[in-house]
Specification:
Layout (H helix, E strand, L loop, with lengths): L6 E4 L4 H12 L5 E2 L11 H11 L3 E4 L4
Parallel strand pairs: 1-2, 1-3
Length: 66
């Protein structure tokens, strides 16, 4: 991955997701995108498609769980 790549981390507030965000930051990745559940409900397909269409992340890490 290029350090300027757009990277979306779903679940960035959890144990695994927060560790991923910290590791990416330590690795020099500058374009990490995060959204809270209130900002992006991953159970709503229309909201997810709109988000991906607008932000077009190159990589996605899915660490969101319930």
């Amino acid at each position: 991955m290029d350090p300027n790549s757009k990277i979306y981390v779903a679940g960035h507030r959890g144990l695994v997701g927060s560790a991923l965000v910290r590791r990416l930051a330590a690795g020099g990745y500058r374009n990490v995108i995060t959204r809270t559940h209130a900002e992006l409900d991953l159970t709503r397909q229309d909201a997810v498609q709109e988000f991906f269409g607008a932000h077009r992340p190159e990589y996605v890490f899915l660490a969101a769980a319930k």
